[in-house]
Predict the 3D structure of the following.
Amino acid sequence: MVEKEKTALILVDVINSFFEPGQPNYYAGVENVLEPMRALLKTARESGTIVVHAVEKHRPEFHDFEWRKLPIHHLENAHDAAFFDDFRPEGPRETIIFKRRFSAFFATDLALFLHEQKVTRVVIAGVKTNVCIRATAQDAFASGFEPVVPREATNSNRPHLAEASLEDIDRYMGRVVPLGDALGMLA
């Protein structure tokens, strides 16, 4: 007998740094993912689906290996690392995972948490498709989850890399689906 898929929503880096104009990682067009992500979040909240807010945070007084490639960013309690607009966690079915690398799974307890909740599929939305979304989808797959990426709920300032990443996710790791399909999985 095949068990019904239990799905969780993972929102990746929905923080001021990417979505507030003038912040270090903001790029033109990023706002196009806001309404699709709001629809995903609303549906998940209404159905009682687990919502994971995976956000990058770094310790302000300590060196971080990531800074060899990137400028210092997303420090604890800094404005750029705060949740954007109406994407703050609410209620008992939402949790926060702090990550220090691109993937929400790498060096966090996300896989353990989701396995304990009997989750088998994760809908992944946020930014950037070719960096954090791809890394999270790859590690979701490696951790035994089916990653699903709603096409309208992610993008990048490098569209050609975003498209290549979506192709790889769909071909090798999971599925890239229209927003409506993802909403149905969360309902």
